[in-house]
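To whoever is on call:

I kicked off a structure prediction for a single chain this morning and the downstream step that reads the tokens threw a length-mismatch warning. I double-checked the sequence; it's 738 residues and nothing unusual in it as far as I can see. Pasting both halves so you can look.
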Amino acid sequence: MATFLYRLGRFSFRRRRLVLVLWIAVLAAVGLGAASVSSSTTDSFSIPGTQSQQATDLLKKEFPQASADAATAQVVFKAADGQKLTSGAAKSEIESLVSGLGTAHQVARVADPYDEGAVSRDGTVAYAQVTYKVAQVDVTDRARDDLADIAAKGERAGLDVSLRGPAVAEETHQSASELIGILVAAVVMVITFGSLVAAGLPLLTALFGVGMAITGITVATAFIDLSSNTSTLALMLGLAVAIDYALFIVSRYRSELQAGRAPEEAAGRALGTAGSAVVFAGMTVVIALVGLGVIGIKILTDIGLGAAFAVVIAVLIALTLLPAMLGFAGARVAGGRYKTRRMRAVEDGRREAMGVRWVKFVLRNPVKVLGTAVAGLLLLAAPALSLQLTMPDDSTAAPGSTQRVAYDTVSDGFGPGFNGPLTVVVDARGSEAPKAAAKDAAALLKDLPDVASVSPATFNKGGDVALIRAVPGSSPSSEETVDLVSTIRDRSAALHGETGADLMVTGTTALNIDVSDKLNAALIPYLCVVVGLALVLLMLVFRSLLVPVKAAAGFLLSVLATLGVVVAVFQKGWFADVFGVDQTAPIVSILPIFMVGVVFGLAMDYEVFLVTRMREEYVHGAGPREAVVAGFRHGARVVTAAAIIMIAVFAGFVFSDTTMIKSMGLGLAAAVLLDAFVVRMTIVPAVMALLGDRAWSLPGPLDRLLPNVDVEGEKLRHLLDDDAEHTVQLAPVPVRKG
């Protein structure tokens, strides 16, 4: 692979205009496609095999008129201060609005709040339930506009009108905080390279790659249903890894120039060495992200595939467009107008780099440093013991959004449980007395604690399947509601024994609970698969047994500590004001398992970029400790810069209005911080010092079994150095300042 990448690097450098034109043409074509298609996203869930899905499928069959899979919306009305909705002009206005809703585009029916008892006891709040003729993904912009127009009409009449539900267009508030992350990345690269040209190339190619990935995902939404968070998470991860991958290749290119190589040769060698590590690192991230699809939850599959696509684009850009841009920049990349006095002293050998001083301190005190670092990570991980999972609902919508206002208004007027009523299905097809079975089921529900109300049973045409609406007394995401759903399902066996009927719970609340349970159950198996994959991949790279074990153990520590940080902030409310968390809630169910996949890939990035140089020095005859120091001398500065850039990019999403994006931004930023600086920069050298020569040993059977993939490009360097065509010592390339 290293030889192929070497040739690709030289080709892209030499034919830079052709490569640039081709990439621009591809971006233009994809951009035109994204601009011309009509795309839609969804946040609906479907989990085959769960009770809620089975009940939903039964409703579709036995209650076709109920349109179990149809899109819905809820229009919430609130009277002005001191007024009531039960009489006068306010009531007339609501009746007029409800009539207008009934004739709106794609609307199948509207439940009049006065006929359905959907008016609060104090007469200040009411809501109308709207059911559409189509599924959520098929709701048109015209239908959403009609809904918004009716709400605006109510506002003009003096009512407070808010909207919620799957059919409501999601309000998004773009934040400039992502730009702050990019600016931080630019500053870090200028400090790292001391050159605007060297700092600008990774940013330029990364932005190009992210644009390509986002437009590609937009085109895909015209043909497949994707989660609404797919693009955001692809942007988050794609931007971070694209900058990092370009950073490593540019750094190696500068090193080759400083060694006296011609620019084209330097580009080829940079791609053959650092490029090989980029391919491996990108492959680990992609495998972990695509692996999320085996869990069987659509939203997780969507964001995994979207983020994996962004990573693939980042790798392709780094291997083709970046060397082409290096061809335009030439030797100017090695310039250093903005180098500080300390940087010049380090380059001249008059001063040791901070990373070298740090690793020497760790090597002098490996036991103390290792014990302190592990204890600190375990302390951070402690809050994860109380981890609670839930799916996002309107209670976590952006403050001030129409969804959040509607949720809070219904909670104030009726109680929090009305935001997530339970659909209880009585399957009495095997019962001798279906009517009596439904009556017993309703009585059972009324006797349960935390049940606010139970509606009369509604039967299908055959009279053997009944539908009952039960409203919990607690909010949809509360532990009390989770326990209530579990209790109802537990009572099904007793009801079946008495009447022959089965009791099933479905609806959005129950479906979300089932999603959370399935994700919770999948977390440990997925973690085991990822750790096993890490062991195999790292054995291939380092031809060692203990180094992969150490890397996997460090990965587990960083994941647990990161989960602890997220739980502490979002679930327990520690430092909530600092991160703009306006209310505590259980952690979004997809976060832990998604974070495991992403952190695995990032952890392997830093492991490969830092430890491959250690192995290279050890193979060349350096002692175990000297190899560790050499690895830090050549890699610590770049790895530090890469980590800071990733932290800055991820941290920019902490200021998102969406709780799910906010928690992922904080989680990924914390994961990079802990994994890069505590695990890779501290625990790794301490463990390597304690292991000594044993770190690089591989049992004979494994040594013969595993192929030698040569990720660091060592064979390529030997091949080129032995080739007479490339052994001619070139004079140092004149470098222009700037």
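Update from on-call: the warning came from a stale cache, not from the record. Cleared it. Sanity check on the structure: The chain has four domains: 1-36+177-337, 72-164, 350-405+521-712, 421-506.
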